[in-house]
Specification:
Blueprint: H1 8-16, H2 24-32, H3 41-48, H4 52-57, E1 69-76, E2 88-89, E3 102-108, E4 120-123, E5 138-143, E6 148-155, E7 162-165, E8 172-175, E9 177-187
Parallel strand pairs: 1-3
Antiparallel strand pairs: 1-2, 3-4, 4-9, 5-6, 5-9, 6-7, 7-8
Length: about 190
Amino acid sequence: MEAAALNQPALARRASQRAATVSQQLVYNLISGRNKTSKHLPALAEALGVSLDWLATGKGGRSPAKPEAQWVGKVGAGAEIYRFDHPDVLEGVEPPPGIGPCNVADIEGDSQYPLQDGWLVFYGQEHQGIPEACVGKLSVVQVKDGPTLLKTLKRGTKKGLWRLESWNAPPREEVRVEWAAKVLDIRPR
């Protein structure tokens, strides 16, 4: 933490950008030895800029492996896009600095204008549920039994249903969403 110039609250905030909420209390518990491990260690290692192995065990190299952007195909912004079954690393495309490993997809469609076809969207790797950090934010969402879309995620009128908003197209109302991942960066290709 000292080398990264972070105190406990700052580390918790930075790690929370990569995973579900990481509390300052969890950081304290790990440092003090009250907790020996946590499911949030990967996010903490990434936030600190160190390898997971080194953070967890003190062994191996301190520096993390070169981050990769795992290409998953396309994400719809007006288009109906269904994800690949076999993601691959997109050659020559690195995640933006400080983000670490993530997914990357081509944007297809124009419902999020000024974003354009072929631009790259980088988003989190965790696809379990809907993190609070995605609510009200531009996110990549997997519609239940449907396409993967780039939308602003809002709560629906009924529990378990969501409103998916576009910047320049009508919203999709009362949609079941399997997972959402926070958009980390967008750039022209």
